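Exercise 7.
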Amino acid sequence: MQHMLRTLLIATLLLLPLAGCGNAGEEQQGASPAAARTGIMTGQAAPDFTLNDLGGTAFTLSGLKGKKPALIIFWATWCPACMQSIPYFSNIHAQYGPRGLEVVSINIATNDPLPRVQRFQELNKLPYRILYDEKTEVSRTYAVFGIPTTLVIDRDGIIRYRGNLLPDDAARLFDSLLAPAS
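Solution. The predicted structure, written as tokens, is:
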């Protein structure tokens, strides 16, 4: 009996980190950009960061402010849920990228050396920008514990959605963020 309880406890502890791989998330529409404080939850101003892409070119999130909304995806090459979501995010890039959505994926670098990520990109030809979080600073800043973790950030730099995958009404969210300013 004790052996069975111990085995159950170990299995629970091993599976607990995967609990973040569900489709939980939250969306908020009403926060005023001027009133939003910096944070990692919906309605807060997204913390700024600068990371290099796989070619060594720097990307700074605040460079999009006032110009484009962004979809940020934290992922790794060894994550099965991340691999399954690639076609989905590629379709979002194809559909909304031409309308102004910046799709940016951030490899969390944990157990994922840069040469592996570069080989992965060469083989899979992801159509969106891939950044490499070598020191995991951005992943820690955004409290990324389960992957994939996705954030939708509006033109004003406010987080409008945070979750593991996008909500069922993601099209409505993107359409509202890409609508011309009135």
